Amino acid sequence: MDKDSPCIVVACDGSEQSLSAAKLASDLAEATGQPLKLLTVYPYAKSSVLVVAGVEPGKIDSEREKHGQEVFDAARQVLSGQVDLREEILLNGDPAHEIIEYMHNHPGAHLVLGRRGFSAVRTLLLGSVSEKVVRHATGPVTVVGQ
Predict the structure, then answer these.
(1) Angle 74-58-39 (CA atoms, 0-180°, nearest 5)?
(2) What is the C-alpha separation between 126 and 104, in angstroms, rounded?
(3) What is the pLDDT of residues 47-68, one digit of tens each?
(4) Is 49 helix (H, G, I), strand (E, B) or coil?
(5) What is the model's pTM?
(6) Contact 115, 144 (CB under 8 A)
(7) In contact, 128 and 114? CB cutoff 8 Å
C-alpha cells in the first residue's frame, strides 16, 4: 500500500480515551472502506529511565515491544474483528512529535486520537499530545473526547 493512499490511523496508548478513538476509527474505516492502522509511540521518557537505571539495550527494546503489544492487544479487543486491520505501527520518541512526523510522511492518513491519555500531570505542565498534533498536523485529525 502506498504511503499516500487514504487510510484511517488511530493513535493508541491503551487509555480509555484511546480505546474510544479506536472504536470511532473502526467505524470511519468501515463507513469509508479505507484500511485501518494502529499507531503507538513508546515514549523516550520511559527509555531514558531504563538507560539511567542501567538496563541493557536489548531489554529496553523488549520493553518497547511489550508496550506495543499491550496497547495493540487492547485496541484489537475493542475492534473485535469489525474491520480489516491493515498495520500496527510502533514508533519510539516524543509521542506528539512522532505522530506529527508520521502524518507528514503519510499525507493520505486521517488520524483519530483521544483527547487525553494516561499522562494527566504531564499534560498540565507541557500540554497534551492531542493539542500539539492538532496544532501541527498536515492532514485531517479527529479528536475523540468524553
Answers:
(1) 30
(2) 22
(3) 555 455 566 667 778 888 999 9
(4) helix
(5) 0.83
(6) yes
(7) no
